[in-house]
Amino acid sequence: MPQIKNKITDIFFDLDHTLWDFDKNSALTFDIIFKKNNVDLDLERFSEIYKPINLKYWKLYRDEKVSKSKLRYGRLKETFDALKIKVEDRVINQLSIDYINYLTEYNYVFEGTIEILEYLKPKYKLHIITNGFKEVQQTKLEKSNIAHYFSTVTSSEAVGVKKPNPKVFNHALKIANITKENGIMIGDNYEADILGALNIGLDAICYNYHNVILEKEIKEIKHLLDLKKYL
């Protein structure tokens, strides 16, 4: 198993899909807003089509190829089109607004989140680096009762660029007041979190619950509590 440096003092976590159970919370949110807007569909089928489309739009957003508003509208429009369901633009726009407004009504975190944060907190300073929209990320942290574990929160939106851009990681290191040699990044997205960190010399561990094939030199875990093997 690849080892980590013993100089680690600070740990940087991604939020969505790493600590905060985005897929579960998102599905529950869609259930609310579809009922509110009288959109009748099979939620399971919708989620199946929506998830890869949403990931595609987030990659476009990271690459500065779509705006926030285009992401919010486009991922819904493309999903409805794929399902051959006619939904008026007016309703799609309202759904995109309601989705953000209701998203933090549910705040499930992954199994092991509280236990691993309790384990790490006495030994390290903990931080968040997120590509999520700044207006909802702090609310997610607070409503899921994990905000108090973290010394700093870096929102890529506030920095002006998104992970994997080096500026995001360098900003996070700066406000944490440490050098890259003393930090490590933990996240689920290979491109944004892992390569983004490694490219500036920041160590990284992939929370690989997606079960993607990684190069053997990449540190990975399948459950958050497996971090105890490294840290």
UniProtKB/TrEMBL annotation:
Q: Which Pfam families match?
A: HAD_2
Q: Which residues cross the membrane?
A: none
Q: Which GO terms describe its molecular function?
A: 5'-nucleotidase activity
The molecule here is called Noncanonical pyrimidine nucleotidase, YjjG family
